[in-house]
Design goal:
Strand order of the largest sheet: 3-2-1-6-11
Largest sheet: 5 strands, mixed
Number of domains: 3
Structural class: alpha+beta
Number of strands: 18
CATH topology of the largest domain: Nucleotidyltransferase, domain 5
Helix content: 25-40%
Distance between the termini: 7 Å
CATH superfamily of the largest domain: ATPase, nucleotide binding domain
CATH architecture of the largest domain: 2-Layer Sandwich
CATH class of the largest domain: Alpha Beta
Number of helices: 14
Shape: globular
Length: about 450
Amino acid sequence: MKDLYRSQRAMRNMRQAAIERGVVAVLDVGSTKIACLVLRFDGPDHTAANDGLGGMAGQSAFRVIGAATTRSRGVRFGEIDAMQETERAIRTAVQTAQKMANVRVDHVIATLSGARPRSYGLDGSVELNDSIVREQDVAQVLAACDVPDFGENREVLHAHPVNFALDNRSGLGDPRGQMGTQLSADMHVLTVEANVVQNLLYCIKRCDLEVAGIANAAYASGVSSLVEDEQELGAACIDLGGGSTGLSIFMKKHMIYADTVRLGGDHVTSDISKGLQVPLTMAEKIKARHGGVVATGIDDRDMIEVGGDTGDWERDRRTVSRAEVIGIMRPRVEEILEEVRGRLDAAGFDHLPSQQIVLTGGGSQIPGLDGLATKILGQRVRLGRPMRVQGLPQAATGPAFASSVGLCLYAAHPQDEWWDFEIPAERYPARSLKRAVKWFRENW
């Protein structure tokens, strides 16, 4: 990332320039499908409320004018495994969406679902030179956050200020213009494996496209699937994808934790394929048409015709009961949910005022999943669909498109991040501040 754009700030500027020109695409590169939506921007949305510094900056009204999906190729666990195959799939999705929109796209904003994300909560504090909080004070307090050693081969993907405190008053959304003597800030930083990000950026560049932003897929899914109250009071969004399951936790309208479980719907399909000795394509159809996780008496009598992989339908034709299919699927789905439970516990999810859990993603459509998830994850579980955006085709309104729709909202309404503030190094009063900015400059 640092070789390509020098900084996240350069991407922010590119996003703004693309929006001012009127067209930008969002690209969801997943393990099962690659989706591209082309957005047309009509200028600032004056009706949208700005929630202060931590809220949305530079909001714009938009509509979807082109949409396309293609089967993903060369992607495993949400990470590029075969560059040329993924490049061809991205080109197919983008060109089809462009054709529908009847417009050329030069800039895309992409999601990243793998790359082993890690969350960090940082805090910093500065004494105010003037009694009124100004822009540079906010920049300095963010720079004062003590940055840990993230380890080799890690890049910062998101750095959101999630809370400000002025003297003894905490929970401030935007401290600018207020009076006090000491300003403190809490910041959520999400890091990912650098080579995974660089592979994605390189692949998109090979498609003759410029990257105007990159976002964590679990974050994008949470933005589109959690309603406002859930984002405010504390909720987790679990995005059950094909190659991996993304997890994001929101509080006070900010993401405060994200992680990925490297298991997803493709593993369920693989289990069916091995268990019934059928090809993967047939296993996927069986999962979609007859799958489930809760067996009843009638499922023993509900017979499904299957064929083997020799191509001789007459010789291979046999039947299995739906109960058998459920018996194969349930252990893997339980394993995924148990892994998610472990990540929620590690994040301290139990301490949030509301423990709402929202299931989304293509894998969330398995019948009976919400009931099983309630047993494993907790009482407050619901199935989530992405909120509607203007012009979105009916085929792209299901839970499988949660991260794509979230990426549209992220493109139009990006949350303020660390790099949105001017931080002149010579103004830093303490060595710790210089060390923090030195780290960011070296890594971006």
